[in-house]
């Protein structure tokens, strides 16, 4: 029997359709026959027709549009990645809060959930978390109403420690401090290793929430060049260490927000060796670490830490329950200082969310949920990228993250993200313009879009509008 006859029918049919497309039977952008029509014309089942189109979609030949069917993907070249900005030569006092408040207040009530980096509720295990909370209320009773110890619930800390091998770590419950979200973990770690007026090295661009934390603590930001794929430039970082006094590094090495960059493991190992040699604490924000698209979770920098100079911070906000506000820190040699600061700051993290998460991690099929969530985010990032490719100006650049759910977009040279933001709000479409991701207000032509919501015709329509506005926007004189 010929080898081609051994192949599944949908594979042979997909090859035939791809040949037709290459021969011009269907042009780029044209709608393909419906599933029923394909089934009828080729005398195959609906299941085979569906598998055929899925195969062509995965191969990049077709694209599915909600409630519209399958279309031949436009033969437009893949968008290039944004360019890396150079390192800053001096540290900068951070003054971002007023600008951030203006942007967030202006975007209140906007359609098109591209601004906030939060997962859609329908992607979260709501029912399982409710069941876990109900079991806690029935069994813990009054215990759930009392204060926890400053370090956090020991059961929850044990569950987090058991997950450490995922990222290459080896922790015990005593190594951890539970916090009110990842931002509090970062805040406490910064307080433990810096004083007002100190300089902290950060990636550029970096998450505006990290810059706001530096501002609240009276710290200066030293922006280090960061590649959109491989992360912070280690040569530039070492040069900064040699040139000036740096009190700490505050990096997101795994799926940086907003770039989505992920440092290769060899780079992470060198980074840890570098900060250990200089005895400069590295505060590692790993809040997106579990949201990888590849076959394995990237190792954290903390995996290479032997002397306690890496303070690892994370939370359950991006994958389980944003509103529970439960995060944690593994602060290494600074663990006792962080626990004392936690006790002084707000005594302890709320008890009930800790107990509920501990119960869920024990019985809630966490790994199964993460697999589904990763698949959803990977698909949503791909669909958003395809829409940007369809609707934005031809010279637009966009990142290609291997995890997380944010995209960093660089408009053509004349683009102005602040003006685009103002015009987009008139259409009730919100996003975060690039200058908010820099202490020096860089990135006038950049913006961050989030992909936390399931794809829909409404999202695509908003991106089409945003792309059209991006092609019309005039730079603002400043």
Q: How would you describe this structure to a colleague?
A:
The chain is an alpha/beta fold and 478 residues long. It has three domains: 3-72, Winged helix-like DNA-binding domain superfamily/Winged helix DNA-binding domain (Arc Repressor Mutant, subunit A); 97-102 and 107-118 and 368-472, Alpha-Beta Complex (Aspartate Aminotransferase, domain 1); 125-366, 3-Layer(aba) Sandwich (Aspartate Aminotransferase, domain 2). It is 41% helix and 14% strand. It is built from 16 helices and 17 strands. It has helices at residues 3-6, 9-22, 35-42, 46-58, 97-107, 126-140, 154-162, 182-193, 208-216, 234-243, 265-278, 335-346, 351-363, 366-391, 417-426, 457-472; strands spanning 62-65, 69-72, 92-93, 111-113, 177-179, 199-204, 220-227, 231-232, 248-251, 282-285, 310-315, 327-330, 397-398, 406-410, 429-430, 432-433, 446-450. The strands form four sheets. Strands 3, 5, 6, 7, 8, 9, 10, 11 and 12 form a nine-stranded mixed sheet that branches. Strands 13-14-17-16 form a four-stranded antiparallel sheet, covered by helices on one side. A two-stranded antiparallel sheet has the order 1-2. Strand 7 (220-227) and strand 8 form a beta hairpin. Helix 6 crosses helix 13 (351-363), helix 8 (182-193) crosses helix 12 and helix 14 packs across helix 16. The radius of gyration is 24 Å and the shape is globular. The N and C termini lie far apart (72 Å). The mean pLDDT is 91. It comes from Hymenobacter montanus. GO terms for molecular function: DNA binding; DNA-binding transcription factor activity; pyridoxal phosphate binding; transaminase activity. In the C-terminal section; belongs to the class-I pyridoxal-phosphate-dependent aminotransferase family. Keywords: Aminotransferase, DNA-binding, Pyridoxal phosphate, Transcription, Transcription regulation, Transferase. This is PLP-dependent aminotransferase family protein.
């Amino acid at each position: 029997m010929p080898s081609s006859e051994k192949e599944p029918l949908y594979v042979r049919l997909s090859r035939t359709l791809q040949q037709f497309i290459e021969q011009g039977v269907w042009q780029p952008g044209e709608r393909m026959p419906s599933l029923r029509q394909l089934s009828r014309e080729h005398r195959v089942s609906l299941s085979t027709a569906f598998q055929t189109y899925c195969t062509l979609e995965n191969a990049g030949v077709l694209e599915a549009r909600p409630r519209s069917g399958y279309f031949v993907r436009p033969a437009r070249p893949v968008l290039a990645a944004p360019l890396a900005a150079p390192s800053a030569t001096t540290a900068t006092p951070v003054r971002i809060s007023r600008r951030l408040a203006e942007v967030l207040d202006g975007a209140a009530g906007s359609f098109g959930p591209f601004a906030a980096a939060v997962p859609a509720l329908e992607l979260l295990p709501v029912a399982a978390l409710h069941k876990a909370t109900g079991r806690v209320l029935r069994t813990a009773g009054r215990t759930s109403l009392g204060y926890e110890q400053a370090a956090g619930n020991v059961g929850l800390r044990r569950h987090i420690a058991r997950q450490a091998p995922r990222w290459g770590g080896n922790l015990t419950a005593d190594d951890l401090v539970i916090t009110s979200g990842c931002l509090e973990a970062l805040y406490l770690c910064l307080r433990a290793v810096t004083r007002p007026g100190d300089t902290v090295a950060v990636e550029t661009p970096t998450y505006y929430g990290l810059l706001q934390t530096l501002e609240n603590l009276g710290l200066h930001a030293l922006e280090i060049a960061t590649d959109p794929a491989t992360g912070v430039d280690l040569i530039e970082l070492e040069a900064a260490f040699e040139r000036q006094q740096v009190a700490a590094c505050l990096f997101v090495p795994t799926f940086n927000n907003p770039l989505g960059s992920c440092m290769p493991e060899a780079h992470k190992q060198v980074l840890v060796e570098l900060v250990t040699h200089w005895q400069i604490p590295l505060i590692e924000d790993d809040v997106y670490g579990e949201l990888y698209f590849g076959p394995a979770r990237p190792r954290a920098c903390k995996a290479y830490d032997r002397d306690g100079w890496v303070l690892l911070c994370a939370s359950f906000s991006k994958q389980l329950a944003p509103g529970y506000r439960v995060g944690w820190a593994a602060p290494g040699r600074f663990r006792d200082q962080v626990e004392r600061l936690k006790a002084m700051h707000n005594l302890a993290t709320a008890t009930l969310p800790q107990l509920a998460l501990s119960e869920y991690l024990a019985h809630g099929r966490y790994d199964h949920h993460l697999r589904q969530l990763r698949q959803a985010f990977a698909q949503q990032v791909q669909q958003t990228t395809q829409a940007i490719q369809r609707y934005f100006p031809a010279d637009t650049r966009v990142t290609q993250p291997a995890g997380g759910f944010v995209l960093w977009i660089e408009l053509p040279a004349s683009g102005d993200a602040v003006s685009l933001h103002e015009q987009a709000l008139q259409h009730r479409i919100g996003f975060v313009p690039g200058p908010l991701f820099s202490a020096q207000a860089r990135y006038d032509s950049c913006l961050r879009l989030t992909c936390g919501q399931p794809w829909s015709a409404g999202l695509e329509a908003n991106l089409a509008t945003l792309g059209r506005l991006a092609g019309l926007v005039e730079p603002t004189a400043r």
